[in-house]
Structures are given as C-alpha cells and as structure tokens.
User: Which sequence fits this backbone?
C-alpha cells in the first residue's frame, strides 16, 4: 500500500506538469481548432533557455543562485513572449483561413527551427542545474513512508493555484467571456464587434507564458530538458486533446493529469522502457473506440 501511495504522490507531480501544458495548449486550440506541433519544442526551448540563462547569470554575472534563477526566468519569459508575437504575426494570422494541414506543416517547421536554435546555442551539449529544494517532505506524516521533495510539493501547489486563477479568469471575467464567445462561435462574436484576431493573439501570449512556466518547473525538477522530452510531452497532450475532444482548458488539464499518473504507475509496476509506448497504445485505443460526436441538429 505504501508503494502505491508513493506512486500516487509522484504521479500528482508529473500529472501537474502535463496538466499545465495541456491547459496552455487548449487555450489556443479551443479558439482555432488547429493542431499545433510546436508546443513541445517551445516547452523544451523554455526549459533549456532557463538552464542556459541561469548558468550565464551564475558564472558570468556572478549572481547568487536565487537571483540567477530569477534572472533566467525573466529572460526566458521575455524570449517566449517574443516567440508568441512572431508566431501570431507570421503563422496564425496568415493561416487563419488556410486549410488545417497548413498550420500543421507551419508549426512543424517552427518546431524544427527551435530545435536547431537551441542545439546551436547549447553547442550540442547537455547542461544541468544543481539539485534545488531536494529535502524530502513526508506527505502523510512521519510514520507513513510517502515522500515528495520540497520542490515537488511547491510545484504541485503552484500548478493548482495557476490553473485555478486561469479558470477563474475564464469563467468570471469579461476577458473570459470574450474567449468563450470566440471559442463557441467566432463568426457571431465578430458580428458582435469582437476582434477575433486580437483574442487569438492574446490567448497565444497567455498560452506561451504558461508553457514557459511549465518549462521552468520541469527544468528545476529534472535538472535538464531536451527536445525528445518535449516531443513526448507534446504528443501525449495532443493525443489527450484529440481523444477527449476537449475544447475546455480545464477538462484538458484533468485528462492530461490522468495520462501523467498512468505513465508513472506503468513505470512503477511494469517496464520503464515501454512506458511511453504503453501510454500511446492506450490513447490510440481510446481514439479508435471513442464514439464520434453526433452532428448538430438545425
């Protein structure tokens, strides 16, 4: 029982990272309905940039570690916001009325650009952060052998707070009502005077900010991030979105958290090498057996 509870606690942390990335993805996918393959690359780019900027602040600017981490977070967030502006201006706006495959190809090309940019910036080397807040925390008390590191506990709480605040904004604020109206019927929203292009751009900025934050948290926990990790994360999020038919960011976050926990339980009870394959087989199976949505009645 203790081993199961330990896997459950660890799964909450991995699931939290999946949930935040899925929430970010559906913020844009819920508006456009277009498949974007670049999110894993942006996630890995933010994690790698965070690590490189931390190293620069530590070794070149002679900053203390907390200040170097804060400096790196600001630099990487600014870089991701710049990427969001470029993507909105040169990919999303020109392809707004183009076939769906156009966005697929464009996002794949952008992802490959980020991969090469990060590889050249890091000189094809892996950089690592030192362990941070790695002391164990007894989740269920000192007598129960279920622990998380201090960093894991902080990250789980941070993700819960961030998703809660974002969901509150979507449900209770004017900006959230505008987002929902464009998501439900962009043509009707445009007739009501809403600038749908601006809403998509603002959503992309918010989405990339959440992706950057996910990259920070993953880099702090794992110590290093590479693009194969980002690819696996993004493909799982994409499958979750397609299988669930999610247009609600919160529902996508819960679905992604479930996938993250399944991944951890598989690694705990079965072969580590086959964990990604098992998750993808499960998602493909659910996609095959899923009942297609009924056509809307006029």
Assistant:
């Amino acid at each position: 029982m203790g081993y199961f509870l330990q896997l459950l606690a660890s799964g909450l942390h991995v699931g939290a990272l999946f949930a935040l990335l899925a929430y970010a993805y559906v913020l844009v996918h819920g508006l456009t309905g277009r498949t974007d393959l670049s999110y894993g690359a942006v996630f890995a780019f933010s994690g790698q940039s965070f690590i490189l900027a931390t190293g620069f602040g530590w070794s070149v600017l002679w900053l203390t570690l907390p200040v170097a981490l804060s400096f790196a977070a600001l630099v990487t967030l600014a870089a991701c916001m710049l990427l969001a502006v470029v993507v909105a201006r040169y990919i999303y706006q020109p392809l707004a009325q183009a076939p769906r495959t156009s966005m697929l190809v464009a996002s794949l090309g952008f992802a490959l650009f980020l991969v090469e940019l990060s590889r050249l910036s890091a000189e094809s080397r892996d950089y690592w952060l030192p362990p941070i807040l790695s002391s164990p925390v007894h989740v269920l008390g000192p007598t129960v052998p279920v622990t998380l590191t201090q960093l894991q506990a902080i990250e789980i709480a941070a993700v819960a707070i961030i998703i809660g605040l974002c969901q509150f904004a979507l449900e209770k604020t004017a900006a959230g009502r505008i987002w929902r109206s464009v998501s439900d019927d962009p043509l009707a929203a445009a007739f009501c005077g809403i600038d749908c292009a601006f809403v998509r751009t603002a959503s992309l900025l918010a989405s990339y900010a959440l992706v950057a934050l996910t990259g920070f948290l993953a880099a702090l926990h794992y110590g290093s991030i590479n693009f194969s990790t980002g690819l696996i994360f993004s493909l799982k999020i994409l499958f979750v979105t397609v299988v669930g038919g999610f247009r609600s960011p919160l529902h996508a976050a819960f679905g992604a958290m479930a996938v993250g926990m399944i991944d951890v339980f598989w690694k705990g009870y079965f072969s580590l090498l086959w964990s990604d394959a098992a998750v993808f087989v499960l998602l493909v199976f659910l996609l095959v057996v899923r009942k297609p949505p009924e056509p809307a009645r006029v």
Remarks:
- The domain at 2-126+170-289 is CATH 1.10.3470 (ABC transporter involved in vitamin B12 uptake, BtuC).
- DSSP finds eleven helices and two strands in the chain.
- The chain has a mean pLDDT of 87.
- The chain has one domain: 2-126+170-289.
